[in-house]
Amino acid sequence: MMPVALMGLGAGAASALLMATMATRSPLSLMLVLLAPLPIMIAAIGWTHWAALFGAVAAALALAIAFGEPLWIPIYLVGAGLPGWWLGYLALLARGDEDGNVEWYPVGRLVIWCVAISAAIVIVVMWNVRIDEDQFQAALKLALERVAKEYGASAPDFTKMDVKRVGELIASFVPPATAAMITFAYALNLYVAGRVAGLSGRLRRPWPDLSALRFPKFAPAAFAAALALWFMPGLPGMAGGIVSGAFIMAYAILGFAVLHDITRNLGIRPLVLGLAYFVVMAAVWPVFFMTMLGLADSIFDFRKGPAATPPATT
Length: 314
Description:
Largest sheet: 2 strands, antiparallel
Order of helices and strands: HHHHHEEHHHHHHH
Distance between the termini: 34 Å
Strand content: under 5%
Helix content: over 70%
Radius of gyration: 22 Å
Oligomer: single chain
Structural class: mainly alpha
Strand order of the largest sheet: 1-2
Shape: globular
Number of helices: 12
């Protein structure tokens, strides 16, 4: 029990330090905060979920004491601690049959859990944070004026822009983009945690074939419902947009899994994969092409047939 507690304490300390960078409000702090669930996931996958849970609680209490603000407890637990523990716990769920065969929790469902957790976090934040519309538009106008002053004659003519309309567009797309970013962060953290546990010899499940990633049958319908909800006014529309943003990233991840699978026999596979990753990281918006590939595979199943990777159980 003592080694488990010590591991949990170490994971909690590392996670708390990453989360504490939020107080600096620097651009780098955003990246570090997104890594806060990683130590908790490593503890869950490499040791036990009890180590992860102990670490999460310890980290939350440490942050509250260090900053003298109890609000850090729910902020940390909702944003990093409990999601990291839960995903690590699910990753090691398994069931066996009478013949001794073991079926591990499907990776596709783990990604869908990343969608659900990310969307829930962003919805809770947006529900509790009230942004004054006049102040937001004034800040946006000031930012545009600074850009125009910095770039001079080469800058666009912002005076002809409808600042209110631009502000509405930004406000409508920031929450979905944030949900997409957090979904990717959770999926990446889970992948890295599994790799770290594997390299240390503590990974207790076989490393899954990620190119065989498949989503549960309800996923496309849930994505379609979220997209339809996005067009509604008020809170339902905001929630629909946030869930849609998370699903867009999830299906982009599925698209990359499909690309890895269908290029197995190509001699130029490293070039194709490297180019795809480079384009998405450099420009971001091509991620929608990967999303479309993932959606298309859900309908047409590009990986079926004798040469394809057998589907994962969902």
